[in-house]
């Protein structure tokens, strides 16, 4: 099957949670003939810290019983890993298993790098929230991966400073804007938060919460909707706050940002469930002073959040032992012992709903020891995660965001124009790659 033809066909399969026509991957999990005979050795590419210790539990337990041995090969994450996987796949030498972020799955599927493992993961679907599971099926009857960790978004704030300044935790984005303005009047040198253009995932998650569908399909063509009404609403909202000076316009993860959080110059952060780990390093002097609440909503009474981060475990079409690999992937992400080890060694927040309220997640993070219900609240928020709609060139859209929104944030210029640039760059790249794109 030619690359161009495959990309056109895959357009009918790769639109997450949109109910598009099912299309099995070119390589399916039954190619290895079902049950394995004799010892099996598998290779797993992953970036998760401590994964070798988790895999040891498999090799000494269920893996020993099934005669399936897994070897971990540590890799870089993000686009670097995806490029390496695709390069290896072109040579027919991809590993048996790979860790892949959810937004990377369409790219890997469109390049025929991932196998459909639906027949080999048992009742794994029942272990995950619908919105999470749909990210690994791409809205089809196929299953291209098993969810591992997720990043439901939340609102973090300095409880002590909110009290000092007489602020109320916002439950809507309108209240969020009012809170930012009120703080500026009371403490001109203090910001509620910053709009950061150095992390595309944050903006994507906010758009997702607003109902954005950046990639959808119509027949055998893609439709790119990065400039849809939902995303424009988010861009205009934050662009307005930046332009009027109600929030800061500096990037996150810099020494200046760390200092602002640690000294109380910024008193809130729109982030995800993994924020405690970042705050521990960025603002060590404020431990025990922060609190977490659900993300503000666009309309009062709504209950939905976006997702920032998260990954899955997939089986490649190059694997000679797809069924065995799928069995390991299911164990890794649904077995209680494995998930507790992943939390302990890798610091992940599990996608499995049962694991979110057990083991390492019974007590709050040390940094949030003052909020006993941290993980109980997090689990409730996670269930409200909106479906995502990823496409085959997320990396291009993200790079365009950083360039266009980076300039707009710095200059306090029109965010809508930056969004239009992001849209046009993404469409142009898809056409260049040979994807069918509807106007």
From TrEMBL:
Listed A to Z, the keywords are: Cell membrane, Lipoprotein, Membrane, Palmitate, Signal, Sugar transport, Transport
Q: Which residues form the signal peptide?
A: 1-24
Q: Which organism is it from?
A: Streptomyces achromogenes
Gene3D superfamilies recorded: Periplasmic binding protein-like II
Q: Which InterPro entries match?
A: Bact_solute-bd_prot1 (IPR050490), SBP (IPR006059)
Provide the protein name. Multiple sugar transport system substrate-binding protein
């Amino acid at each position: 099957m030619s690359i161009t033809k495959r990309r056109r066909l895959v357009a009918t399969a790769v639109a997450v949670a949109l109910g598009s026509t099912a299309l099995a991957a070119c390589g399916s999990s039954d190619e290895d003939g079902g049950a394995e005979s004799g010892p099996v050795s598998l290779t797993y590419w992953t970036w998760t810290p401590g994964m070798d210790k988790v895999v040891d539990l498999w090799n000494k337990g269920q893996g020993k019983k099934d005669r399936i041995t897994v070897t971990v090969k540590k890799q870089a994450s993000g686009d670097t890993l995806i490029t390496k996987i695709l390069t290896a796949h072109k040579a027919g030498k991809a590993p048996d298993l790979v860790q892949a972020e959810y937004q990377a799955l369409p790219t890997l599927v469109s390049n025929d790098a991932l196998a459909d493992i639906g027949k080999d993961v048992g009742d794994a679907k029942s272990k995950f929230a619908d919105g999470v599971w749909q990210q690994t099926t791409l809205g089809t009857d196929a299953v291209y991966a098993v969810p591992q960790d997720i990043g439901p978004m939340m609102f973090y704030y300095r409880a002590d400073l909110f009290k000092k300044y007489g602020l109320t935790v916002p439950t809507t984005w309108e209240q969020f804007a009012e809170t930012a303005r009120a703080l500026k009047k009371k403490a001109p040198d203090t910001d509620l938060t910053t709009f950061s253009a150095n992390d595309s995932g944050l903006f994507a998650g906010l758009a997702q919460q607003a109902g954005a569908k950046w990639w959808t399909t119509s027949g055998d063509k893609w439709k790119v909707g990065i400039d849809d009404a939902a995303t424009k609403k988010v861009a205009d909202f934050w662009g307005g706050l930046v332009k009027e000076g109600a929030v800061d316009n500096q990037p996150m993860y810099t020494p200046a940002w760390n200092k602002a959080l640690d000294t109380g110059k910024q008193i809130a952060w729109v982030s995800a469930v993994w924020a405690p780990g970042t705050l521990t390093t960025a603002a060590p002097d404020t431990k025990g002073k922060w609190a977490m609440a659900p993300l503000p909503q666009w309309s009062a009474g709504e209950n939905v959040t976006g997702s920032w981060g998260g990954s899955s475990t997939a089986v490649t079409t190059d694997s000679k032992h797809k069924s065995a690999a799928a069995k390991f992937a299911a164990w890794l992400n649904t077995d209680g012992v494995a998930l507790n080890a992943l939390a302990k060694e890798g610091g992940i927040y599990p996608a499995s709903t049962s694991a979110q309220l057990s083991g390492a997640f019974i007590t709050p993070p040390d940094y949030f020891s003052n909020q006993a219900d941290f993980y109980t609240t997090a689990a409730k928020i996670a269930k409200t995660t909106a479906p995502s709609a990823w496409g085959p060139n997320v990396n291009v859209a993200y790079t365009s965001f950083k360039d266009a929104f980076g300039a707009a944030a710095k200059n306090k210029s029109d965010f809508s124009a930056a969004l239009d640039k992001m849209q046009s760059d993404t469409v142009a790249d898809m056409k260049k790659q040979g994807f069918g794109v509807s106007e």
